[in-house]
Amino acid sequence: MVKAKCVFCGIEQEDYKGMYLIKNDGTIIYFSSSKCVKNHLKLKRDKRKVGWTEAFRLQRTRRLDKGKEEKAKINKAIKEDKKKKVEKKQEEE
After folding, report:
1. How far is CA 18 from CA 14, 42, 74, in A?
2. Domain boundaries in the chain?
3. Could you point out which of 29, 37, 78, 92 has its C-alpha 20 to 30 Å from the C-alpha of 51?
4. Do residues 44 and 53 touch, judged by C-beta distance below 8 A?
5. Rounded-to-integer distance, Cα 3 and Cα 35, Å
């Protein structure tokens, strides 16, 4: 079976479900539901800002991962500074 991926929400469904939109330039756009059609075409919403879409979830996880990496770098720098201070104290004694 061929699966089609919705342009808006990112859900993969069987080829015979949902709705296709064929533009004048020949591009084919697949929508899984009327909810996706309305949000994309009529309301012109950004899929990265709508909470139930795959794009929103990916963006959120990337943002959280980036925050964790930054915290790890900061913690590593703090630990290195503490080690340097301890070494300086030991050298002075």
Report:
1. 8, 17, 48
2. 1-45
3. 29
4. no
5. 19
CA dist 6 and 9 (Å) reads: 6
User: Cβ-count burial of 90 within 10 angstroms (0-12 exposed, 13-18 middle, 19+ buried)?
Assistant: exposed
> For 1-45, which CATH superfamily applies?
Ribosomal protein L24 (2.30.170.20)
State the DSSP code for 7: T
Which tokens sit at 87?
């070494």
Copy the structure tokens of residue 44: 């012109």
Is residue 9 helix, strand or coil? coil
For the residues 4-28, what does the mean pLDDT come to? 91
Measured distance CA(23)–CA(30) in Å, rounded? 11
The Cα-based distances of 35 to 9, 18, 43, 64 in angstroms read 9, 11, 10, 28
Q: Can you tell me the mean pLDDT for 24-49? A: 95
